[in-house]
Every structure is written in C-alpha cells, then in structure tokens.
Amino acid sequence: MDAKERIRKAMHQEPTDRPPCICPGGMMNMITTDLMDEANVSWPEAHLNARMMADLAEANYEKGCFENVGVPFCMTIEAEAMGAQVTMGSKIYEPHVTGYAINSVTEWETITPMSMEEGRAKVVLDAIRILKSRNLDVPIIGNITGPVSTASSVMEPVIFYKELRKKKEEAHRYMQFVTDEIIKFARAQIDAMKEEHRQWQSVLNDDAQIKALVVEHNLFSTFINLMQESFDPVKQTLSPHQNSILEDSGFMDFSENDRSILELAGYLALGYIHEATNYVNSHSGSSSSLSGWGRKKDEDDEQWWRRSIRTAASAMKPARRMGRRR
User: Contact 124/71 with Cβ under 8 angstroms?
Assistant: First the structure.
C-alpha cells in the first residue's frame, strides 16, 4: 500500500496496513532548520518563491520525515491577502501579523478580496503546480487557515472577540466574507492540483517558435564545441605560467566543461535550485556554492546571467583541477 492509497483509505475510514504518518503544513508545518540546511533552501525566502517552497516541501518527504508534502508553511497567507501587514520572519520563526487591515467588524466591506493572481496566494498555487508536475509518490496537501484565526488576524483579536457579542450582525457578515474568501483559496488550490504540468506550448505561441528555440540551442552548443576543438591544439603549446593565467581566469573551466556549466547555469537563472543541486551532485560537483542562491535586488539581467554562469562554473569545477593546484 503506497502513501497516497494509505491516506485516502484512512480518510474514508477504511482498513490500512498502518496509520499514515503525515504533517499537513500550514500552522502544523514540518520544516526544521536542519531540513533547510539539508535541502539548501531556507526561510524566509521559501515563503516568497514557489520553486523554493516546492523544493523545501518535497525535502520533507525525501529526507524521510513524513510521507506527504504540504504547503504553505504559515497561517498568514489569507490575512495578508486581505490587507493585514505581515513580516516574513526568519529562518527560525514563521511569518506573523504586525499590522491590521481594519479596526472593527463594521469595516469589513473595506477589506480587499483575495487575489489568486498575485502575492503569496499565487506563490502557494504555483508551488502546488510544481509539486504536481513532479509526479510524487506521496499526497500533496494544501492548507488553509480557519475563519476565526483569519478574522482575528485581519483585525485586533481582543476587539474582534468583544464585537462577536456586542455587534453580532456585523460580526456575522464579517465572518461570512472571511469564510467565503478562504473557500475561494481552497478551491483554487484544488484546481491547481488538477492542472497538468505546463509545457513549452503554454509559454511559446506555436510549434515554429519551439523549433526555433531548439535550433538556436543546438547551434550555440555546436559553436561552443567548435571553439573548444579549435583551441585544443593551442593548449598543448602553452607554458605552465600561461596555463596558470587561463586557469585563474576561469577560461579552462569554461572551455573544458562548457556544456555542463551552461545546463547548470540555466537551472540557476530560472531559480530551479532543487534541479540545480541534483544536477551538481549527479556530476560529482560541489553544491556548497549554491547555498542561499537567489537574485539580488540591484542585479540587472546581464549581471544575473553572468553570476549564474560563474556560480555554475565554480560548482562544476572538476576535482582533478583542484588537486593539481594544491
């Protein structure tokens, strides 16, 4: 009995070979600092990046913690989407509310409805789509925050609880609005789980563009190979000092390991940290240089691409070259 069947039967009160061992996510998330270090993905960045959120959730299963993956890792998604101010926390504590959207239940009509197309709600939905596309052997569990918890995060909780008694009708309308918004988010998560993995066709307009992209990639790879072949005879004539200069500049790594560097740089530039780490490990590289990877706020496209390539070159540097330098 696999993990999906086990939890499905347990939810329907049917016999199982053993109780499922799960940790759903949300407020009851399964993320520890040790797991972040193992996965090379950390808070608070993973709260804001769908790929990182998916990678960290999957690591919970891959490292043998629980037999499910769950997102998000906090209970502030809904409140923030409705206007509450939220700090993203740190590596050791979760996001939490620092400011309220309204001062009384009577102001509920001023609350902004949740959008599924922006903010952290979209991050969660995209993370679910990514996890779904990986065809995991374990259940994907999406999480929502309860209506009372959300309502008392959108406004100051002590005032909220007092007004449940003093302003019953407005409190009821407020709770109905909050509940409807949470249900909308839950349904969006279900829809995200049903969606098929997005293919190139969803990004490109037609087959002609796809063929053009493939041709461009192949031409570039062939050009790199021709450059390397033309330089090979020259390398044999270089003095030790000249070789040292080329090694220190990174040229030798680029010329001898170009294909692997370019493939890894592609993963890094797209923010696919999980795939990049797996690629490095499968090619006997060093993934330590990928720790905390991400685009800097003041980095333009050219700088971002250059840093992706240089980081990839460092990660894919052959062990034999490091040994020779010692």
Answer: yes
Question: What DSSP element (H or E) covers 275?
Answer: helix 273-282
- Three-state helix/strand/coil letters over 1-38: CCHHHHHHHHHCCCCCCCCCCCCCECCECCCCHHHHHH
pLDDT of 180 higher than 50? yes
Report CA-CA distances (Å) from 189 to 121, 151, 182. 9, 20, 11
**CA–CA distance, 26 with 120 (Å, rounded to integer):** 13
User: How far is 154 from 147, CA to CA, in rounded Å?
Assistant: 11
Report yes or no: 147 and 82 within 8 Å, Cβ to Cβ: no
Instruction: Report the candidate in 310, 211, 206, 209 with the shortest Cα–Cα distance to residue 257.
Output: 310
CB 305 within 8 A of CB 266: no
Confidence of residue 163 (pLDDT cuts 50, 70, 90): very high
Label residue 244 by pLDDT band (50, 70, 90): confident
pTM above 0.90, yes or no: no
Sign, CA dihedral 48-54-91-101, equals positive
Taking alpha carbons only, the member of 136, 163, 110 closest to residue 55 is 136
Q: How far apart are CA 232 and CA 302, in angstroms?
A: 29
Distance CA 261, CA 313 (A): 5
Q: Which amino acid is at 285?
A: G
Q: Could you give the CA distance from residue 70 to residue 150 in angstroms, rounded to a whole number?
A: 19
Q: Tell me how far apart the terminal alpha carbons of the chain are, to the nearest angstrom.
A: 53
- Mean pLDDT on 241-247: 76
